[in-house]
Amino acid sequence: MLPASSLPRPGQTVAQLLDALRGGATTPTELVERVADGVERRGDDGVWITTLGRQQLRERAAGLEARPGARDLPLYGIPFAVKDSIDVAGMPTTCGCPEYAYVPEVTAPVVDRLVAAGAVLVGKTNLDQFATGLNGTRSPYGIPRNVHGGDLIPGGSSSGSALAVATGQVPFAVATDTAGSGRVPAALNAIIGFKPSRGLLSATGLVPACRSLDCMSLMATTVDDVRRVFDVVAATDQADPWSRSRQRRTVQRPRIGLPPAAALEFLGDEPMRRAHDVARAALPQVGVIVEVPLTPFLQAGDLLYQGPWVAERLVEFGNFLAAHPGAAHPVVAEILEGGRGYTAVDVFRAEHRLQELRAEVARLWTDVDVVVLPTVATTFTVADVLADPIATNTALGLYTHCGNLLDLCAVVVPAGRTEDGRPCSLMVLGPALTDDVVLEVAARLTGSAPGAEVAAPATTTELVVVGHHLSGQPRNGELTGRGGVLLETTTTTADYRLLRIGTVAPGEVPVPALLRNPGKGTRIEVELWQLPAAELSGLLAGLPDVLALGRVRLADGRTVPGLVGDASVVSGSPGRPVTDITDTGGWRSHLARPRSPLALPIH
């Protein structure tokens, strides 16, 4: 992977550019000259399919400069990119397939609104062909390279849109999202990816992948930039049958739904799991944490490519495939042709199952405002994907596939990197029409909300410890050696049990583990430590396998990250019995006992 110092850095934000343009520090003409220089300097790197010529950019900039009052436009002089499945009059729409290309006479309303707001279109960006894929390798126009190097995939299908922003060529881009196309490439290139509620951005002028699920999406480097652009493009459109109105709503102290850490799947990528644990640790500083189940989200996502929605893609591309055999990318053609095997019975069966899952998820919103998940479980190299294109692509959509099926809105925010330098991100999900809520939570996570106290990644995190990491205990040096500071000694709420894993036989050190068990526990003494956030992943990597990072409820009502027992400790294992020592009220009290209790069943 590239060292941090050599990573391409995004350019100035929309906000910074507007300040410079309105203050006279630069002009639209000077700005488009810099953009054109940057595009030429990078050459044919797989980001763009069609770009406007330098002279066309100059003419657009000059027209803005000559227009009275133009400096007050919300996006005066700001360059942007559009995914090449979205129509722009006079420019070819290829959808990543040269034989499919056509030149529209009408521009998509979303692009029209941006231009009317003073933005300057630079060109149209690369994508997985027919917006079918989450990996960014399925285009005859080349494979954009991930900014983190290491031959990592760029993510798709909106690969070019993500790279145009991540490499600093433009400050924002318009993309699309059906299965995660606007979120996965944003996550893999450490920028913001926003999938609004379906229908808030007009889909007129978008070549559909799955018309009932498709939505436009936005990419930028800050949540503030996304909000600025969203304010411009969110509008009803009578020509779009899925169009609906934005409903502005905010919350003061969001209730954040989190699935149990043990329920999350990272497909064997333990560095990604540890990086995600670090990112999760900052969430209690943003809102109130409420545990939610993960299963309905995953089961809904499974329906997308293991159900009849694949057949919906044939509505748009079936005739083209029949008339142009061999024109489509072979993997894309295989996926689309697979849709022919579904029947009307399959459609209704899947719709019924999806409605059950929608109802199950809808009930969660009475207790939480948002749900936070990983964006991706793992990453892949280009070689990985080319060797196994279907399985790797499915893995990339593990957490994103459910979004449009469940009628959710979502925003992806960077959340640090793994130990080996790959990007980690969080995905904030909310029910339809709570877009401003998910954006507010995202802003707090990135430290860009007014009055925000949390930086991303957080500079410090709090951590509850209960056993060997307590002051004076044998592993306490793992905290103090990493810059940890003891904040207080306190207790949990009265619904925890304390377990001892292993025996006191010679040569074995039993491990204490905290387990929440409502109705069958008591208050357990713990310590609350503050630790540099960057040190957390290293600490977790050295834990015994019976411990994990979870959430601990303290007696004063706070919910704080803490070291808890892994789910496997309940059953124990041969040679490592589980002993219940809850009645001692804490590990120190247990050690002070003259005799240890007998091993007891804890079920």
Structural topology:
Elements: H1 14-23, H2 28-42, E1 48-51, H3 54-66, E2 79-83, H4 109-116, E3 120-125, H5 159-166, E4 172-177, H6 184-188, E5 192-195, E6 215-220, H7 223-233, E7 255-258, H8 270-280, E8 288-291, H9 295-305, H10 309-323, H11 330-337, H12 344-364, E9 370-374, H13 382-387, H14 389-396, H15 402-405, E10 408-417, E11 423-431, H16 435-445, E12 460-465, H17 477-480, E13 485-491, E14 496-501, E15 511-516, E16 525-532, H18 533-541, E17 547-553, E18 559-565, E19 578-580, H19 587-592
Strand order of the largest sheet: 1-3-2-4-6-5-10-11-9-7-8
As a percent range, the share of helical residues equals 25-40%
CATH classification, class level of the domain at 4-248: Alpha Beta
> What coarse outline follows from CA principal-axis ratios?
globular
CA radius of gyration: 26 Å
What is the distance, rounded to the nearest whole angstrom, between the alpha carbons of the first and last residues?
46 Å
Low-confidence stretches: 1-8, 450-458, 596-603
Q: Helical stretch count? A: 19
User: How many beta-strand elements?
Assistant: 19
Q: What is the third-level CATH name, the topology of the domain at 4-248?
A: Amidase signature (AS) enzymes
What's the CATH superfamily of the domain at 4-248, by name? Amidase signature (AS) domain
Question: What CATH architecture of the domain at 4-248 would you give?
Answer: Alpha-Beta Complex
